[in-house]
């Protein structure tokens, strides 16, 4: 492909597709985020959703631990064999296996962090639910007291 042909193809592609950014979103609610049938502004997640993400992170952690250990072991064995036979590739493969171990630790730490954080979030939100329920219960008790005193019972 000649340079001129490449430039022509780029120009045609630019004509077909604007370079502006497009966001997939609901139109802005002119009345704010509350009220109406619009769920906009409300973040909802169920404990089932959190549990599924936490379970997936845990399973990834378990599986990757198993398979990465096997891959590293096989690489180190191959590296040792190549070094014994005098191949420079053995030292390079040994270096790759060590870098693999570093990257594996990073991924395993991240998946453990996700799983642990979701467990913490689940407990924290459960505590928030109890606090909110107690607060609302207290308010209704106060309301009953005011209604009783004003004769609206």
From TrEMBL:
It comes from the Bacteria. Residues 1-46 are annotated as: Disordered. This is AG1 protein. It comes from Streptomyces hokutonensis. The lineage of its organism: Bacteria, Bacillati, Actinomycetota, Actinomycetes, Kitasatosporales.
